[in-house]
Structure formats: C-alpha cells, structure tokens
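Sequence, please.
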C-alpha cells in the first residue's frame, strides 16, 4: 500500500520591494521571498480535504503585509518574522522554510542633494564588437544587465485612452529598467588617434547613469533620450547610441483587505512584476550621422 512521504507547499519567488523615505534620502530593500510549509497535510493528499491548508495566496499576502507592518531590517530578520508567524498561527503547520534572495543596490552619485537614484550591484556585462575589412575599422561597444531605479521623480499620465485602457495615471511612481545599450565610435582609420577605450567606457556609463538619475521623467522614452543625448554631448568619440530599455514595472500592492494603507508618502510596498513588460527602444545620433547599429541588439 502506498504511503505519503515528505511533502511541503507554499508560494515561491514573491518579489517584494520596500521603499523607506527618510526625507530626500530613500532606502531600498529588494527581496525574492519563497515560502514553504509542511506539517499535518496528509488528508489534502489522500482525500483532497483542504481543512488544514493555508492557501498559498495567503502566504503571498502575508509577505507583503509583513513588509509594511514590520519593515525589512534584514533578510534574516524578515524571514524569522514570517517563519514564526506561519508556525505559531496555524496549528497544522509544523515547519516553515523561508528562502530569501536579496538584490543589492548602490546610490548613483549626483551633484544634487536628492538620494533616490540607484544602480543594481554586480549585474553589468561589458560588450564590444570590432569589425575590420583590411582598411577600415568599426568599433561598437556597450553593456547589458545594468539595472537602475528611481524611487521617485517619475510620472506617467496624459496618454491615449480607449475602451481597453485600465492603467491609472501615475504622478509619483518607481521608474526602473535593465539597460542594454550599444554605442558606435567614429574612430575608423589607423591614421586617427585611437580613443582611450577604458576611459571612454567609464565616462559613457557615468553620463548614462547621471542622466537617468537627474531627469525628472514623464516617460521612459524621455529618460532614454536624455541618456543618449548626454553621451553624445560629452563624448566626442561617439556618434551613435542605441538603447533597449524594458520597463521594470512596480505596482502598489493592495493592502486594504488587511486594514493597511499603502501609499507612497509613508513608505510603500510594491510588487516587482516580471512580465509582461513595456519595451522602449531608440537610437540617439550625432547630427549628420547615419545609423548603423542594428535595431536588434542581440545581433551584435
């Protein structure tokens, strides 16, 4: 006769972002939380009775509610709060396993006093493509997986609406994207002075990040153009910059069912959505130059 062995259930990969506002200085905790529960769960397997089952949707809601009620001092402390809650509040649950991945962000240094712009640590990949036909060179460099976020100074409103439009207008939102960019150098001949590639890369990245941080954004398209324009204006060795920017949507979680107000002005909790996502792409050129970088950046 078959018998039931080890079993557990829960909600995996709950993406939760907690923004804490200390005046103009903002703090981010960005976690991926997986909850796994086990205990007296034989009957749900044998007969389908859910009498001892706390819904996985409830565990998800608990993660977001606890982020608001208790804050996130550390991944460890947050996991302790959750595990203790599940085991002590539900008699059939004997064991709770909380797995948390934390994604680190560092501030983007700017000339201003506001501290609400961040860049994800440890994600960027540097790229280059060199083409030579025996007489002329083409060098296209770039980067991918550079994740950036503004926790305020972003709006989105005044857009076209039709009968299928449900998106509410936003006057204070998170703006986040994972930058994929390529830029083409105007160095093409051995007789020309070769650029300092290391300095150029660091400066391009610097201007890209500064433009992202300092632009009060009414659309991701506007931010993209400012990023490209800053590079063209400050780096004479570059004639063309192309961006592919997925809009990493962050939606306010509805916490009203739990008697909690979730508003941007008092430290909000967001759902970091994985997909679908808006995808914004464009090229910024030096005046008089023709585009050469392919639209599909994966072809480079």
């Amino acid at each position: 006769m078959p018998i039931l062995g080890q079993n557990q259930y829960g909600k995996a990969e709950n993406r939760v972002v907690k923004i804490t506002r200390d005046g103009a200085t903002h703090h981010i905790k960005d976690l991926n939380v997986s909850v796994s529960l086990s205990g007296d769960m034989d009957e749900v397997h044998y007969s389908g009775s859910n009498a001892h089952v706390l819904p996985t949707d409830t565990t998800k809601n608990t993660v977001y509610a606890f982020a608001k009620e208790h804050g996130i001092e550390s991944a460890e402390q947050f996991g302790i709060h959750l595990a203790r809650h599940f085991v002590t509040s539900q008699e059939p649950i004997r064991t709770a396993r909380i797995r948390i991945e934390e994604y680190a962000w560092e501030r983007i240094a700017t000339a201003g006093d506001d501290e609400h712009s961040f860049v994800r640590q440890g994600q960027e990949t540097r790229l280059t493509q060199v083409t030579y036909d025996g007489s002329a060179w083409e060098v296209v460099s770039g980067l991918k997986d550079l994740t950036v976020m503004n926790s305020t100074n972003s709006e989105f409103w005044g857009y076209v609406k039709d009968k299928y439009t449900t998106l509410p207008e936003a006057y204070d939102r998170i703006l986040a994207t994972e930058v994929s960019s390529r830029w083409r150098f105007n160095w093409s001949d051995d007789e020309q002075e070769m650029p300092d590639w290391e300095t150029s890369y660091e400066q391009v990245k610097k201007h890209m990040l500064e433009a992202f941080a300092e632009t009060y954004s009414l659309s991701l398209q506007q931010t993209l153009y400012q990023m490209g324009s800053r590079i063209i204006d400050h780096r004479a060795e570059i004639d063309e910059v192309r961006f592919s920017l997925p809009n990493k949507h962050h939606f306010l979680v509805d916490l009203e069912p739990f008697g909690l107000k979730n508003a941007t002005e008092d430290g909000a909790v967001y759902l970091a959505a994985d997909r679908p996502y808006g995808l914004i792409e464009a090229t910024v050129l030096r005046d008089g130059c023709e585009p050469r970088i392919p639209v599909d950046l994966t072809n480079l």
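The chain has a mean pLDDT of 93.
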